[in-house]
Specification:
Strand 2 and strand 3 form a beta hairpin. The N terminus is likely disordered. The strands form three sheets. Strands 1, 2, 3, 4, 5, 6, 12, 13 and 14 form a nine-stranded antiparallel beta sheet that branches. A three-stranded antiparallel beta sheet has the order 7-8-11, with no helix packed on it. A two-stranded antiparallel ribbon has the order 9-10. The protein is globular, with a radius of gyration of 17 Å. With 206 residues, it is mainly β.
Length: 206
């Protein structure tokens, strides 16, 4: 189930939906075979199968900052990425994700915003979101979306998948993980449209 607070135009199908089909999800990291085997064989490793019947496993999360945890996901299909575990009720700005609140079970409301997102230093901007926006939508476990472009050409994007809620040592965490996707054709990096349209897309590698 997904509630999107916008009304798509017919031409948006060609601007966003068609280009989305050209994107391929790719590995983020170069994990050695020893580490991959350790993750799969560790008794504390947790695995799950997505709606696309892809098997992913993640190693024991480690503390990241004061309250959040971090881990790494590895799929038998070769896709990997970084996982964030954020305590419910604790805000953590994460790309264009401004806030998440629990509705019930794994169902959550997520607020997207520009978050003044910028990559670079005081002398050079590599990529920046200049569109000012904020909107809410309801997501459920395994919902996936483009959180941001990685360049102005729109041929590299960062994808986030929501993995629901997990309780660790009595604390409830929102689980999300992110990975890269590339396309030779690229896509228009307009916000919030690129996020909204990607919420309806099936990234089959995930």
């Amino acid at each position: 189930m997904m509630i999107l607070l916008f009304y798509p135009q017919i031409n948006d199908f060609y601007i966003y939906s068609v280009p989305l089909n050209s994107f391929t999800v790719e590995p983020n990291f170069s994990f050695g075979q020893d580490r991959i085997q350790k993750i799969y064989q560790d008794q504390d490793t947790k695995c799950f199968t997505t709606l696309n019947n892809n098997l992913f496993c993640y190693e024991t999360p480690k503390l990241h900052g004061e309250t959040s945890l971090i881990s790494f996901m590895i799929g038998t299909n070769g896709i990997d990425g970084e996982m964030h575990l954020v305590p419910i009720g604790m805000n953590e700005n994460y790309f264009t994700m401004k806030n998440m609140t629990r509705v019930s079970g794994d169902l959550a409301k997520i607020t997207f915003a520009d978050n003044n997102y910028r990559v670079g230093n005081e002398d050079r901007t590599i990529y920046e979101i200049t569109d000012k926006f904020e909107f809410d939508t309801i997501i459920e476990k395994f919902d996936t979306f483009i959180a941001k472009c990685n360049n102005y050409e729109g041929d590299s994007v960062t994808i986030v998948q929501y993995l629901g809620v997990e309780t660790i040592d009595g604390v409830d965490y929102f689980l999300t993980w992110h990975m890269l996707a590339h396309s030779e054709k690229g896509i228009a990096c307009d916000y919030p449209q690129i996020i909204q349209h990607s919420l309806n897309h099936n990234f089959k590698e995930l």
